[in-house]
Amino acid sequence: MVMWFVKTKAIQISFLGIYFLLGVFVSGCQRQIVSESPNQVTFPGSITKLSENSSPQHLEWIKIKETVWIHKSFGNFLGKTYESNGLVVLSSRGVVVIDTPWTESQTEELFEGIKTKFQKEILFLIVTHAHDDRMAGVTQFQNRNIPVYSTSLTSKLAKEKGLGKTNPILDLQTRVSAGNVSVEIFFPGHGHSPDNIVVWLPNTHILFGGCLVKAIDATDLGNVKDANLLEWENAVKRVLSRYPDAEVVVPGHGNWGKLDLLRHTIRLLVSTNH
Ligand SMILES: [Zn+2]
C-alpha cells in the first residue's frame, strides 16, 4: 500500500515535471543554443543564429585538446534546430568516435572531416544511448564495416526504436583500448534515458557526459520523454564521485566546461523536483 502510494506520487511528479519542462524547453532553448563560450575554437566558422526554418546545417569541429575534438551537428526537435555534441578521439592507431552526428548527411561530413583533417581510420564507434541525436548515422558506420559498440540495454532499445544494430560488448568490457589511448564507459543509472552512459578518457581527463549532463547555461532539462527525474540526480552524483579529477566535461548539447556542469545539472533537477 505504501509502495503503491509512493509510486503513484512519483508518477504524478514526473508528469507535472514533463509538462513544465516541455513548456520551458520550447520557450527557452533557442537562446541557449546560440551562445558560445569565449574559450572555444570553432572550425570552420562560429555559430550564427538558428531560426525555425534554417537550411540544413553543416558539421562543425571544436578542438578540446590536440587529440580530442567535438563534432557538433544540428538536428530538429519540435520544429526547432538544436546543436548536438559527439567526440572524435585520436590515437596512434586511428580514431574513436563517440556518438554519431544527428543526421546522415552530417555523418558523411564527419567521415570526410576525419579523412582530410587527421588522415586516420575510424577504429570503432561508441553510442551513449538509444536516441537519434546519438545514433542517426549508425547504419553508415556499419556500411563501412566500422564496429558500433554499446551496452546491451542501448542495443535492445535501439532495436525496438528502429535506430540500428549495435554490438553490446560494453557491459563486459568497460575499458576499450585503441592504440595509445583507452576509453572507459560508465553507466551511472537512469537519468536522461534508462540507458545513458558517460565516457571517460583517462589519458586526457576528459569526461563526455552526453545527455545526462546539461550545459552551464541550460535553463531546463531538455528532452525528458524517457527521463527519470527522480533518479537522475543520483546518477549525476555517481559520475561526480567517480571522476572528481575530470578537467573537461562535454555535455550532449551546448558548450563544454568543467565539473560545475554536473553540479548545474543537479541544481536543475533539484529545482524541478521540489
Ligand atoms: Zn537523448
UniProtKB/TrEMBL annotation:
Its EC number is 3.5.2.6. It holds the Pfam family Lactamase_B. Its main location: periplasm. InterPro entries: Beta-lactamase_class-B_CS (IPR001018), BlaB//VIM/IMP-1 (IPR058199), Metallo-B-lactamas (IPR001279), NDM-1-like (IPR050855), RibonucZ/Hydroxyglut_hydro (IPR036866). Keywords: Antibiotic resistance, Hydrolase, Metal-binding, Periplasm, Signal, Zinc. GO terms for cellular component: periplasmic space. One of its GO terms (molecular function) is zinc ion binding. It is found in: Periplasm. Its cofactor is Zn(2+). It comes from the Bacteria. It catalyses: a beta-lactam + H2O = a substituted beta-amino acid. SMART domains: Lactamase_B. One of its GO terms (biological process) is response to antibiotic. Residues 83-253 form the Metallo-beta-lactamase domain. Belongs to the metallo-beta-lactamase superfamily. Class-B beta-lactamase family. PANTHER family: ACYL-COENZYME A THIOESTERASE MBLAC2 (PTHR42951:SF4), METALLO-BETA-LACTAMASE DOMAIN-CONTAINING (PTHR42951). Monomer. NCBIfam families: bla_class_B_core (NF012229), bla_subclass_B1 (NF033088). This is beta-lactamase. It comes from Leptospira biflexa serovar Patoc (strain Patoc 1 / ATCC 23582 / Paris).
